[in-house]
Automatic annotation (TrEMBL):
Source organism of the structure: Bradyrhizobium vignae
Protein name: Alpha/beta hydrolase
GO molecular function terms noted in the UniProt entry: hydrolase activity
Residue ranges occupied by any AB hydrolase-1 domain in the UniProt entry: 73-201
UniProt keyword annotations, A-Z: Hydrolase
Record carries keyword Hydrolase: yes
InterPro entries found in the cross-reference section: AB_hydrolase_1, AB_hydrolase_fold, AB_hydrolase_sf, Epox_hydrolase-like, TAT_signal
Matching PROSITE patterns: TAT
Amino acid sequence: MKQMIDQYRRRFLGIAAGTAAVGLGAIDLARAETVAQRPSPSNASFGPIEQIDAGVLNVGYAEAGPSNGPVAILLHGWPYDIHAFVDVAPILAKTGYRVIIPYLRGYGTTHFLSSETPRNGEPAAMAADIIALMDKLDIKKAVVAGFDWGARTADIIAALWPDRCRALVSVSGYLISSQAAGGAPLPPSAELQWWYQFYFATDRGRAGYEKYTHDFAKLIWKLASPQWKFDDATFNRSAAALDNGDHVAITIHNYRWRLGLAQGEAKYEELEKKLAAAPQIAVPTITMEGDANGAPHPEPSAYAKKFSGRYEFRLITGGIGHNLPQEAPQAFAKAVIDVGEGA
């Protein structure tokens, strides 16, 4: 164990000490409610970011834990970054997990290898990026966990590449969709929640997001997590990842693609066809929700039947919003540990 911790310390610099490890426990198939223990405000950060060519990208990623441990891949959302998991990673590392936290395309130090590659934000492309990263790192299987865009990506991996997904943790549940589904109108109150999607559909919206990227992101953070009292240092640490030269293009394409206003790439068409059928997910899964999530999200009862394997839903109480891993890191880490047991 000492050797494991020494490896963790060498490979994961800059994490604040003193985070308690979460005990292991058998998964309970009943609905579970957990009162989150909010961490003290932390300016912890990652040490040197690793870089590797994988697929169409040079991927930047943080790594923690022993190199020979079971793997957990943690995926962030928009407009967040890898620091959403800065307090989750040491908990998992201390229990023996090898933790990989990549910047998605359009974030941080991840960049395209060619200027000719379309700046494509469609969901299948992002999932294919993670599979390419796993191949390059010689990772056969992993627990895949995420929120927002990261949860959508994790769901797709679990559905289309179940042989590569040991287990799944998905905040807000089943987020697989399609352009056809995205074209269906919602009740006005639901459409209101997606205001930024319609803003991004316009040239004015693209120009506005490019000009006010950080201001826009901070507004989303506040709306999505109305009870999370993050400070400027916490926000600025993550907002730096949005300065990636492809970030605006990827964001705009993602939301326009969802509305059928932008085309994807031909090489992902077969994957998107499979996703349009809303495939079930058979790998062991825990879905989670914060009790104060201000972002658009489905009711757990609406997606429970999409998970045909070992499954549990956990409601995290205590004013937890959309960025559940950063607001309730112990609860998120425990879900990763619990779902991986026996998987």
